[in-house]
Specification:
The structure holds 3 protein chains of 3 kinds.
Chain A (H helix, E strand, L loop, with lengths): L2 H19 L3 H21 L3 H33 L1
Chain B lengths: L2 H23 L11 H14 L4 H9 L1 H22 L5 H17 L2 H23 L8 H17 L11 H27 L21 H24 L2 H5 L3
Chain C lengths: L3 H18 L4 H23 L21 H32 L13
Classes of the chains: A mainly alpha, B mainly alpha, C mainly alpha.
């Protein structure tokens, strides 16, 4: 159980906790992107490059962009309703 | 139930669950010494029988190909579901308002963003095609490359060049691409049934290990999945972007 | 030391579910669900890890070197893709719920009837 695995696991736990406790969605999606990156680094350390590539691509491109577009849509629906 | 009561109940329940799970995890094999015989049996099968160097790609697209078929159909139906939920019947005024909004937004994008977006779109496209094509040799493959290709589409949008073709509507292309990818995967599965007696059986010649065209049906399935994932992600993003411009054409 | 990866997986699950239960915004809820889903990735990869930790790609290492379990990685790959699709559908549902009820607070959905 080498130190690299321990450090990456600790980073994952820390960023995961941070993602949950940031309440504002617009800030939370940036934290979620960092959480995804920490997970990807952990996957590389665990010897899983395929999974790490998928995780990078999903969690830093797809999910934050979708969440941001949803927030923009909700904001615009709010403004149109007024 | 008030929020404070709900929080208390959640905390006690989660503490109990966590304790039970940790006790269960103590019974797992030692970390670093897995016992699974499937893993040691599958590696020579992928290397010698299938002539690929990426064992994960061989497991995903050949040995457990039926699971990937299900996963691809999940992606397909999620894209269709999100599209059905987000597309609404909009009147003519709404369309015109959306077009004006799009144009105003494109003009307000700062010049460096537009330049970087335009400059990166081409290389990202090439990178996506590279990742899809080399799936059976190095880490990568259909899913990763497909999302990279979809992000090239996103870069074009961010660069302010609103995607607009006179005759072929881009959304039609994206939908056709997604359906084509999903259909191609299913067709290769049926082809295995027709040519080799079992669905998803690898029926193309295997080639030499380490070359781009090796592994039989694995590169074909990679490309099918890449096209499908690109189409699905681009469709979801374009629905969320509410590109009324893409749907009804520019005036 | 042996139980640290599994402890991180359990912690992520607990924190993610707590976030879902006490959430005040639908988009926040979806991202907390992503944290809970990440616990399964950590668990799967921790189960499949073999101590030298080489990746199961034999492009530049000789066949026969001990590598990490590849079957578990195929499962986790599927898991990651399914997370992305579930997130997409949930976000679309959030947009619809907001349009119908006028609020994105899960506690207040169902109160306002448009």
């Amino acid at each position: 159980m080498n130190p690299l695995l321990l450090v990456t696991l600790a980073l994952v736990a820390l960023t995961g906790t941070a993602t949950v406790f940031v309440r504002d969605p617009a800030r939370q999606l940036v934290t979620a992107g960092v959480f995804g990156l920490a997970l990807a680094i952990m996957f590389f350390a665990f010897g899983a490059p395929d999974v790490a590539l998928s995780q990078i691509v999903v969690s830093t491109v797809a999910v934050p962009v979708m969440a941001l577009l949803t927030l923009a849509r909700l904001h615009r629906d709010d403004r149109e309703g007024e | 139930m008030s929020p404070a009561v709900r929080r208390g109940v959640a905390l006690t329940a989660l503490a109990g669950l966590a304790a039970a799970l940790l006790v269960a995890c103590l019974g797992l094999p030692d970390f670093g010494h897995p016992r699974g015989p499937y893993a040691t049996a599958v590696i020579p099968l992928a290397l010698d029988a299938r002539h690929v160097t990426s064992v994960v790609a061989a497991v995903t697209f050949d040995i457990r190909g039926i699971d990937t078929l299900g996963e691809e159909l999940i992606l397909f139906s999620a894209a269709v579901g999100a599209t059905v939920l987000l597309r609404s019947q909009r009147g003519e005024d709404d369309t015109r308002a959306a077009v004006e909004r799009q144009r105003a937004l494109a003009e307000r994008t700062p010049a460096p963003v537009r330049r970087v977006g335009a400059a990166l779109a081409g290389p990202v496209l090439v990178l996506g095609v590279y990742v899809v094509a080399h799936g059976q040799l190095t880490p990568g493959g259909g899913f990763q490359g497909g999302v990279v290709l979809a992000s090239a589409f996103l870069l074009v949008y961010a660069a302010g060049h609103v995607v607009r073709l006179q005759r072929v509507r881009p959304v039609a292309l994206v939908e056709a691409g997604e359906a084509l990818g999903a259909g191609a995967y299913a067709l290769v599965a049926v082809g295995g049934l027709v040519f080799a007696g079992a669905a998803l059986e690898n029926f193309l010649p295997y080639g030499t290990t380490g070359q781009l065209l090796s592994g039989g049906t694995i590169p074909v399935l990679n490309v099918a999945v890449g096209v499908e994932v690109c189409g699905a992600v681009a469709l979801i993003l374009s629905e969320l972007l509410d590109q009324a411009l893409l749907r009804h054409g520019a005036p | 030391m042996n139980v640290v990866p599994y402890a991180v997986a359990v912690w992520l699950l607990a924190v993610g579910v707590y976030g879902v239960v006490t959430s005040r915004h639908l988009v926040h809820l979806v991202l907390c669900l992503a944290v809970a889903q990440a616990s399964t990735y950590v668990l799967l990869l921790a189960i499949g890890y073999r101590t030298p930790g080489r990746a199961p790609i034999f492009f530049d290492i000789p066949p026969g070197t001990p590598v990490v379990d590849p079957v578990v990685q195929a499962l986790t790959l599927t898991d990651v893709v399914v997370e992305a699709t579930v997130t997409a559908v949930l976000l679309a549902l959030a947009v619809q719920a907001h349009r119908r009820f006028g609020t994105a607070d899960p506690d207040r959905l169902g109160e306002l009837r448009g």
